[in-house]
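#struct-pred
JK: can someone run the complex with S-adenosylmethionine? inputs below
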Amino acid sequence: MDPAFWHSRWQEGRIGFHQDRPTPLLVEHWTSLGLAQGSRVFVPLCGKSLDMAWLASQGHRVLGVELSAMAVRAFYDEHGLAPSIEQHPAGDIYRAGDVDIVRGDAFALDADTLRDCAGVFDRGALIALPPDMRRRYASELYARLPAGCRGLLVTLEYPAHEKAGPPFSVPEAEVRDLFGRDWRIEVLVRRDILDAQPAFVAEGVSSRHTVAYRLERR
Ligand SMILES: C[S@@+](CC[C@H](N)C(=O)[O-])C[C@H]1O[C@@H](n2cnc3c(N)ncnc32)[C@H](O)[C@@H]1O
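RT: done, structure tokens with the ligand placed:
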């Protein structure tokens, strides 16, 4: 899961994680977070996700971070936007409309950059990382988000011995272990998605759920 792994996924077009519509759980549950119009939302490991455009359409300012320049450029191209590009301590920052994306390593983002993020949306981010990186991700990156920040975290759960990640299975106990000290955690929904994912069934996976959590930074 080092940068070379993700760069080659983008270069070779192996981006099965990309969805051609906003994440349904985002659309269903985002308003329950009660974030104000105009507030800034952090989208870690954002790819070229349509979730960023959807959040902007809801009146948010969006801050994404993504390793792959190819993904960042594709996001703006596909929305007919011509971003400005400036230097940022963590990499280049692309800006257009209400969506800013830092092209760089999420772990290099400092607290100052994340200070005004009132919200965070995490889909395909925590679960894209292997266990040791998930611990760093929670204890370093999420730790830089400000008190009161509210988030929607989407995870996957499946018998981990039945398939190698990514995406990794991240059970509720691990979410509570990673985030429970600094974040209030509430399960919003746990949904059985095995029937909707024939590729997983073909690989021998016997159960698969997606879980949406509401997070609130203490
Ligand atoms: C599984 S994809 C999910 C992308 C997006 N969240 C979505 O739902 O389509 C994970 C993304 O994280 C990016 N990534 C991986 N490690 C990263 C890091 N340390 N910093 C920034 N981006 C990273 C990859 O290039 C890839 O685009």
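RT: quick notes.
The longest strand covers residues 183-192.
Residues 3-10+20-27+37-217 form a domain with the Rossmann fold fold (CATH 3.40.50.150).
JK: thanks, will look after standup
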